[in-house]
Amino acid sequence: MRNSLIQLKSKKNSFFVKMINVKTKYTYLFLLSIALLLGCQEEERVIYKADDQAPPPIENLRFVRANGGFDISYDLPLGKDMLYVVAEYTDNKGQKAEVRTSAFNNRIIIRGFGDTSAKTIDIFTVDRANNRSIPVSFTAEPLTPVVEEVAKTISIQPTWGGVAVEWFNETEVAIVLDIYAENEQGELEVAEVLYSENLEQSFTLRGRESTPQKFKVVVKDRYENQSVEVFPVTSDQTLTPLQEDLLDKSKFVQITLDNDDTWDAWGSSFSRLYNDNYNAEDWAHTQGNKPRPSILTIDLGVEVELSRFRVYQRGGNWGFRHANPKTYTLYGSLTFPGNDGNLDDWIKIRDCESIKPSGLPVGTLSNEDRQAILNGDEFEIDELIKIRYVRIAVHTSWGGNNATHIIELDFWGKVYELSTS
């Protein structure tokens, strides 16, 4: 028994000795790693010690003129202590400006010049001791600034209740458009500020009286450059918006035809389509259990030559997705065609498609997309036809399902009182 206890004790001692040896081994390795790390750091300090020796300059300089700037490339010189490359120049305000890039990059992009006068660019290499090389320089004229290129393309034309502004931005860089209109004192003031980087875009300023008035557009960029003022191309620089009226929704009445969908699913109601409530959760909603198209019919309560209409999709996280309408058709009729709802008996006014400005995949929204949701999908009508009844037939939704939800509908046009005969 005693021999067994002695053997057990001996085994325990052996185990603890092994554990101590293992811990000692790892402790040694840890200390060795620290020593090596400190040694490397010490060696690095020795390699990159301060001196006053200038690094070699860049080599084989190339540049391409761009709108408002230059695209510069070069070959990097050999040198272990190179820190960065810097291009220096004088900006629009006459102040010294610079653009830096790392020593691992052989390109520098300069933008922001507001004119096409000759610019001198000095390029230096800088080492870790903050020593600079001799400059490698060039003098050249940048291409026309983006704001001026866009300004050349701007068109301002009269339209229903306002003016339509169109422009083309070949560079697709971010710009700002200030749209001016006359105030009550006859002075031009900013009526709308637009942010855009799309290739081609248009905007309609609405809510204007049908009287001759002045408008202008100015293009800006993030470098504080500003284009020339762009006015309508008329003898007196004025335009007269086309007359139209927003239809009185209190006169709207739901009509349910044989092939109409139901628009009261999920706690919604048809009357929400025209209750002047644009809240994202105040919608009319179909169940989604019927084949396309999903149709709704409204008696406008007046005879009207429609000039345009607007469809507000459900916003928030639902924007440009789920059951929001993507493609649909507007129909109209002056007299009531019948309860069967046969679309062949109705006048096809126009086909419509909801366009997502960014073009991003469904489920991803840009700021421009979110603003488009708030603005609503608007469609002008080319051929004025007097009608009283309208139908909207939804063919597809953004989510690809058979359900549809709409927040609100607005209609504009030339209104006639109902005939009493």
Percent in strands:
35-45%
Q: Segments where pLDDT lies below 50 for 5+ residues?
A: 1-28, 40-46
Rg, alpha carbons: 35 Å
Helix-strand pattern, N to C?
HEEEEEEEHEEEEEEEEEEEEEHEEE
In DSSP terms (H or I, runs of 4 or more residues), the helix count works out at: 3
* Extended strand count: 23
The backbone outline, from C-alpha atoms, is elongated
Distance between the termini: 125 Å
Determine the structural class based on helices, strands and strand pairing: mainly beta
| Largest sheet descriptor | 9 strands, antiparallel
- Helix content range: 10-25%
Overall pLDDT level: 89
Which terms summarize this structure?
9-stranded antiparallel β-sheet; 4-stranded antiparallel β-sheet; 23 strands; 15% helix; 39% strand; disordered N terminus
Topology:
Elements: H1 2-47, E1 59-66, E2 69-75, E3 82-90, E4 96-102, E5 107-110, E6 119-127, E7 136-140, H2 146-153, E8 155-159, E9 162-168, E10 175-182, E11 188-196, E12 200-205, E13 213-220, E14 238-239, E15 245-246, E16 253-255, E17 284-285, E18 294-313, E19 325-333, E20 347-353, H3 367-375, E21 377-380, E22 386-397, E23 405-416
Antiparallel strand pairs: 1-2, 2-5, 3-4, 3-6, 6-7, 8-9, 9-12, 10-11, 10-13, 13-14, 15-23, 16-18, 17-23, 18-21, 18-22, 18-23, 19-20, 19-22
Description:
It is built from 3 helices and 23 strands. With 421 residues, it is mainly beta. The protein has helices at 2-47, 146-153, 367-375, and strands at 59-66, 69-75, 82-90, 96-102, 107-110, 119-127, 136-140, 155-159, 162-168, 175-182, 188-196, 200-205, 213-220, 238-239, 245-246, 253-255, 284-285, 294-313, 325-333, 347-353, 377-380, 386-397, 405-416. The longest helix is centred in the first third of the chain and has 46 residues, at 2-47.
